Amino acid sequence: MTKYVGALDQGTTSNRFIIFNHNGQIVGWEQKEHEQIFPQPGWVEHNPAEIWQNTQDVIQSALFKTGVAGADLAAIGITNQRETTVLWDKNTGRPYMNAIVWQCTRTDKICKELEREQGQNRFRDKTGLPIATYFSGPKIKWILDNAPEARAAADKGDALFGTMETWLIWWLTGGPDGGSHVTDVTNASRTMLMDLTSLQWDPAILEVMGIPPQILPRIVPSSDSATWGATLAEGPLGAAIPVCGALGDQQAALVGQTCFDQGEAKNTYGTGCFMLLNTGHTPVPSRQGLLTTLGYQINDQRPVYCLEGSIAITGALVQWLRDNLGLISSAPEIEELAATVEDNGGAYFVPAFSGLFAPYWRSDARGVVAGLTRFVNKGHLARAVLEASAYQTRDIVEAMNKDSGVALTNLKVDGGMVGNEMLMQFQSDILNVPVIRPEVSETTALGAAYAAGMAVGYWSDAQELRQNWAVDKTWQPSMEAGVREKYYREWKKAVDRTFGWVE
Fold first, then answer.
1. CB within 8 A of 59, min separation 6: which ones?
2. 265: which of 175, 227, 230, 329 lies 20 to 30 Å off by Cα?
3. H/E segment holding residue 285
4. How many CA atoms are closer than 13 Å to the CA of 498, on its beta-carbon side?
5. DSSP output for 379-423
6. DSSP character at residue 283
7. Cis bond leading into 359, ω under 30°?
8. Helices vs strands, H then E, count in the chain
């Protein structure tokens, strides 16, 4: 019987289940959005129970629509929004509160307190990360400090912590009835609690944050032939299928883009924007505001590390233009609106809605539209919104070139925004390198499928996966150097205006 691999893509705004064949092509899929909860300015939450329900719904619907039986799948892989944090009762599966989303800034005071003694880089040598509201560790501390029931259960050993892949693997493999409590190395590396070298939770950092080690999942490889259990016959797949691949969404895109060689890089344009550069088997410390993170680990092979530039708001800015301002009624319309003008009219939009991530790490920054004159119209604003993603990416590339000592020669791109031809051309222009879009742009889900498929021998090795990768389109730079540098200089000026807004 023909076998496929299933990938669950648990994103910031939706859940998707995608079925891939051996050539890495999509056989079928289903998607369902979940609610974005904003209890107060700067706070972002998700309902974990809704996400689990939607997970079951998209799996069943994708199988039904394509006529594929759950038993036809060789394995299941999961990719997820990283850093989003949930604590739940291990006996009932009930979360103690909504999940705190990676974009949420409620841990700002906790982070300031952690920085007080030794600064923002207090844990960077061990974890590769600055102290920032972005990461899971301070979110765990916030829940334990603010939900007495969670603290009491954690101290007793009745509470479990997980990022979203941990939550879903636990439910898929049995939940309260013996579900597997694991996290892969890539997600563990985003907690600010894991030692990058030993790939273990760091006892000293746990003690500083007051986090009991018994709530933490076991750290496992991204692609694990030991598997973490199987789905339940009475579950959404209707069959016992190995769950054995997991990667944070950006690392999954790295694998899906087959960036297996040192020096290869990819950029994913989603809710936020994330560029990863493969630095090989050695973690490279950043001096330019980037993150040192795990790229992936296959079974018991040596882990692969990355430098990462994380941008909080890119695609989410298009959503904001649609939902908050009503300038467009659907995301694709922004390209048409932006095409009504020749340039940005001098307007720059810096979307520091929840501070700025790499390379600035400024939680005191807030969004700014700079350079406004009476000449600027909604077309110019639409163009400034698109260009913000490209400028923020250049900020990352500049830092990456300095850290790695290697100049970027081309950029592989993926994610929801790469269908926007205007953005891709401007990205090539402002970086002055070719931008390459693959035939399968769903590289995040594909990477999760690859991790699971390699674990069970469905794919043999990285070389076989490379044969699946093919170019769809390449954009070449065509902007004059003087114009490029003028635009970028003005962008940097606009970024400066965002600093210090929150006192």
1. 6, 8, 17, 30, 70, 236, 237
2. 227
3. none
4. 26
5. HHHHHHHHHHHHHHHHHHHHHHHHHHS-----EEEESGGGG-HHH
6. P
7. yes
8. 16, 22
CA-to-CA dists, residue 427 to 40, 404, 423, 498, angstroms: 34, 21, 6, 22
Q: Write the pLDDT tens digit of every residue in 355-406.
A: 898 899 888 899 999 999 999 999 999 999 999 999 999 999 999 888 887 7
Q: Please give the Cα distance from 132 to 126 (Å, whole number).
A: 15
Could you count the other beta carbons within 10 Å of the beta carbon of residue 64? 11
Q: Report d(CA 475, CA 307) in Å as an integer.
A: 24
Q: Could you tell me the CA-to-CA distances from 458 to 154, 237, 251, 301, 434 in Å, in that order?
A: 39, 19, 20, 18, 33
Q: What is the four-CA torsion angle of 411, 317, 306, 253, rounded to 10 degrees? A: -70
- Structure tokens of 64? 């039904």
Contact 174, 229 (CB under 8 A): yes
**Residue 403: CB atoms within 10 Å:** 21
DSSP string across 451-481: HHHHHTTSS--HHHHHTT--EEEEE---S-H
> Which tens digits make up the pLDDT trace of 192-244?
999 999 999 999 999 999 999 999 999 999 999 888 999 998 889 999 999 99
**95's tokens:** 């979360």
Count the Cβ atoms, other than its own, within 10 Å of residue 41: 10
CA angle 100, 311, 52 (to 5 degrees): 35
| Contact present, 366 and 372 (Cβ < 8 Å) | no
